[in-house]
Specification:
The chain is an alpha+beta fold and about 260 residues long. It has a single domain, classed as Cyclophilin-like (Cyclophilin), CATH 2.40.100.10. The chain is built from 4 helices and 11 strands. A hairpin with a 2-residue loop joins strand 2 (about 95-100) and strand 3.
Length: about 260
């Protein structure tokens, strides 16, 4: 299952090689429609996540789980995702560290509670996922050490695939959460291969991409957009894959003050 994100008409070939690549289409930030009330604060955040004085996150013990089906049976809540996360005065944010700098992304649990729970749970090692290397269900930090496997200038950067080819998934899918949010520069949303096929792959937009509105689940807003621009303007192959691996080095979840 390839997860593809379509380019707008007139933007040329998206380089996905056909098939069903994880697409970046969803509700986002700009270009009409509502935006989250928290989105405006994100734009003032700085890369690196600001103050962490409310304490570091608590590492979950890594586990290999019994059974060959999703231990959560597709039902994973935000409460589960946030277990032992230190309280703080700031909004819930993800700090995405890349080879081109850090993105500070404010998350939108009110608009997309299941999407945020999934991202936070995978990032913190709280949500079980199917390890493609072993075939076992595990609880382990999912995103750390991966890459952005698809980048397109003046569009978006896509990552979160352990296979790095657009076909990776966490062993389960979950339903769309389409809200009034619109795609603007810095929108964080899930890539998909059609309705209700969200998993682990996500994208961050470089510019307004309003043709994606209503088809993809937006769950956050990232800054600075200049980091996305740095990522999307690297040299790529015909499938929009960076010729030199572009690291998605670490994702940290925090409620500390920006």
């Amino acid at each position: 299952m390839l997860l593809a994100i379509p380019l707008a008409a007139g933007c040329g070939d998206d380089g996905g090689g056909g098939g069903t690549t994880s697409s970046t289409g969803g509700t986002g930030g700009e270009g009409g429609g509502a935006t989250s009330s928290s989105a405006s604060t994100t734009s003032g955040s700085t890369g690196g996540g600001g103050s962490m004085d409310c304490g570091p996150d608590v590492d979950a013990p890594e586990e290999v789980l019994a059974g060959d089906t999703d231990p959560e049976a597709g039902m994973f809540t935000l409460d589960e995702a946030l277990v032992e996360l230190p309280e703080g005065p700031g909004p819930l944010r993800a700090i995405i560290e890349t080879d081109k700098g850090a993105l500070t992304c404010e998350l939108f649990p009110d608009e997309a509670p299941n999407a945020v729970a999934n991202f936070v749970g995978l990032a913190r090692g709280r949500r079980p996922w199917l390890d493609p290397a072993t075939g076992s269900w595990v609880k382990r930090r999912f995103y750390d050490g991966l890459t952005f496997h698809r980048v397109i200038p003046e569009f978006m950067a896509q990552g979160g695939d352990r296979l790095a080819n657009g076909e990776g998934w966490p062993g389960y899918e979950f339903a769309d959460e389409i809200s009034a949010l619109k795609h603007r520069a810095g929108t964080l949303a899930y890539a998909n291969a059609g309705a209700d096929t969200n998993g682990s792959q996500f994208y961050v937009t470089e510019v307004v991409t309003d043709w994606l509105d209503g088809a993809y689940t937006i769950f956050g807003q990232c800054a600075p957009v200049e980091v996305v621009t740095e990522m999307t303007h690297v040299e790529t192959d015909e499938d929009d894959k960076p010729l030199v691996a572009l690291g998605l080095n670490k994702v940290t979840i925090t409620r500390c003050a920006p």
